[in-house]
Amino acid sequence: MGLALAFCFTACYDLDKMPEGVLSTAEPFRSTGEIRNYIDRYYEFGVRTQGFMAGGGGGIAGNDVNSDNLASAAVNSRLMGLTSLSNAVALDNYTHIRNINFLINNAGDCPEKGSVEYNHLMGEAYYFRAWFYYSMFSDYGRLA
């Protein structure tokens, strides 16, 4: 019994390790690779596409609905002045902005700070934050 107990205690190694493959709040963004992986997910939301249902419907024409180029079959509540920040159902852009602000505030601890790749990635982060603010501005008007 003593031999088995001794084996159990010697078989363990340091259990106070940071999880691998998971972004930790204790030491986030320890490399430009982690920053790139974090930023890459915003290309799905922060870049206009012309695929099926782009801009809310109808492929390439979807972005033109309710513009001076294309009229919609339904009355747009935004154009009637009924859409505002106070009655918005969901503001996903705020979630994206909060997540990007987390990156901007914590990327300064990266050992590769100041490198060309680091500066490029931070430029992308600032672009996406501006894009989400612009999207909200174009949908809701002046932001509080």
UniProtKB/TrEMBL annotation:
Indicate what this protein is called per its UniProt record: RagB/SusD domain protein
InterPro entries reported in the protein's UniProt record: TPR-like_helical_dom_sf
Organism of this sequence: human gut metagenome
* SUPFAM superfamilies, per database record: TPR-like (SSF48452)
